[in-house]
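Can't paste images in this forum, so I'm doing it all in text. The chain is below; anyone willing to post the predicted structure tokens underneath?
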Amino acid sequence: MKDVSIDSIINEPKTKNFFSVLKNNNVDVENVEVLSAQRKKNGELLFAYLKIDANDEEKNKLLPYIFIRGDAVVIVPIIRVKGKNEKYYLCVEQVRVADGAYHLEFPAGMLDENVDNPAFTAVKEMSEETGLKIDEEKLVILNDGKPLFSSPGACDEKIYYYKTDVTISGEEFAELNGKLLNNSEEDERIKLKLCRKEDFLSQTKSNMGLTALMLLEMYESKK
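Text version of the structure:
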């Protein structure tokens, strides 16, 4: 692979985090080969595809190929309008490369450099994807703070799930619903939608979105 330093990939925050997790689980890594890597426009590592020679604590070999995506956050923004009892979810709709079709999802984002601070990324993604600026204190982490793997057979990605409650005016509601946002740095073109639960469930194709709602209901049932 041209112009890729193995050390430059291995020492990236998300890659170092991956190997730190292996070490904590008593995995012995004997060799690493970088098969491919992709960086963002700002130079941060986006993805890496590695071949590793590693054994678990019982000396069994692990499958050798791993897609380094890094961890991510999903935020469920619960929106209420002043003076009304209705509850909505603030969702983002955009075309996804997986099928070239529109997907209805909750705001989300990857932990690129801030691998040890998912709440920071959650606040940043809320601002970038919805325009709403919230403090970390307004975030509530779901699933008792335990992230969930998206595809552990081939990928290192773990998802941290949050919720946040926001009360807005009727005028702000009308402004948010259908608002278009463009982020050229991330190649994102997002339309905001304020959805009732039944509307989200009938339209989403996101397993992370369904998981987020399940975790939210589990959290609320404990209150």
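Residues 207-221 form the longest helix (15 residues). The chain has six helices and twelve strands.
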